[in-house]
Structures are given as C-alpha cells and as structure tokens.
Amino acid sequence: MVKRVLFVLALAFAAAGPAAHAQTFQEGVDYMVIKQPIQTDNPARVEVVEFFWYGCPHCYEFDPSLESWVKALPKDVEFKRIPAPLNRVWETAARVYYTLESMGLVEKLHTPLFNAIHQDRLRITNERALLEWLDSKGVDTKKFSAAYRSFSVESKLKRAQQISQAAALEGVPALMVNGKYLVPGQSAARMLAITDSLIAQSRKEMAKK
Fold first, then answer.
1. 51: β partners
2. Which of 10, 129, 166, 190 falls between 20 and 30 A from 174, CA-CA?
C-alpha cells in the first residue's frame, strides 16, 4: 500500500513538471533593490557584476561555480568583476586585480592567484612575496610595478569604490544585476538561481522601455 501511494505521488509530481521546481525569491530576503540604480556600460545587455575580495574564503569557494555559470551565459548578458575596495587591505587586493587587468593577465592569473592565496598562504599585501610569485608565473614585474600606481589603475579603483558605495555593499561575494539588484552571499546554487531569476526580470523591464 505504501509503495502504491509513493508511486502515485511520484506520478503527480512528474505531471506538475517544471512548476513543481519553481522558486519564488523575495526582495529584502533573497536580494535587495538598490535605491539609486547604477548606470551600466551597455544598456542593450543585462549586466551582472561580481563583487569579491581575493582574501575572502567564501569568494574562493564560490569562484568555480561562478566560472562554470559564466561560460553558459547567453549573449545578451555581460559579466564583469569588481574587486570591492571596502577597506585598505581590500583596496590593495583590488589594485592588484586592476593591475593584472591592465596587463591583460586576469584570465590567465585570476584562478592561480586565488589558489596561491588560499592554498599556499601567499600574502599579496607583502609586495616582495607578490612580486616573487608573479615572477614565477612569467610576469614582467617591472611592468607590473609601473602599472600598479598608474592613472588607469587609480581611475578603476576609484570607480570600484563609487560603485561599491552606491550599491550599499556590505560584504562579499555578492552579485549585482543590471545595476538595480544586489544578491548577497549565500550558497552558490542559490545565489546563481536568484541571479538567473533577476536576469529574466531585467529582460522584461528592458523590453518595456
């Protein structure tokens, strides 16, 4: 009798289809609405921004799931990273990120740098240790040092500070969707599911304009 009941329940659940799996996300619980929307770089695409800090263990754990998710994004979604400079230590990490970006090395070194920090205990606030690590990866450390305090890096750092403040960012990891919605840190699967939902919502909003 029990087996028959379970079988019937299984059939009913299957008949319900995707609706049975549907999730409803709530403003103020699963995500926040940014009071003053932040203008995106390309109004024709939905923009998703990750706020992170290289020293954050949760960001490190989130990164592999995020990387896989980014690879499967549709063409109308643009992904970016912002290394949140919420304090002086985080500012140093942000400066390292933007220096690598200016040298075209983020794609090559982003994950290795994360690994070096969390597996090998590299302290990127230790300039000598950082330069030695970069040298081991074949980076021209003289060019890196020159770019580290360049006008371009300074400008990106200031912009990152402005966006972090405008988004009322309190911690990382966090995802911002289209300059309007902020998804705070939680499990990777839930963060990405909420973000997918907000991407779909943003598409509808853009279509009405």
1. 82, 174
2. 129
Is the pTM higher than 0.90? The answer reads: no
Most distant pair of Cα atoms in the chain: their distance: 76
> How far is Cα of residue 111 from the mean position of the Cα atoms in its chain?
13
Is 15 a member of any domain? no
25 burial (CB, 10 Å; 0-12 / 13-18 / 19+) is middle
How many domains is the chain partitioned into structurally? 1
Q: Do 57 and 118 contact (CB within 8 A), yes or no?
A: yes
User: Per residue in 120-154, pLDDT tens?
Assistant: 999 999 999 999 999 999 999 999 999 999 999 99
Secondary structure in 3-state letters for 84-129: CCCCHHHHHHHHHHHHHHHCCCHHHHHHHHHHHHHHCCCCCCCHHH
Give the span between the Cα atoms of 32 and 117, in whole angstroms. 30
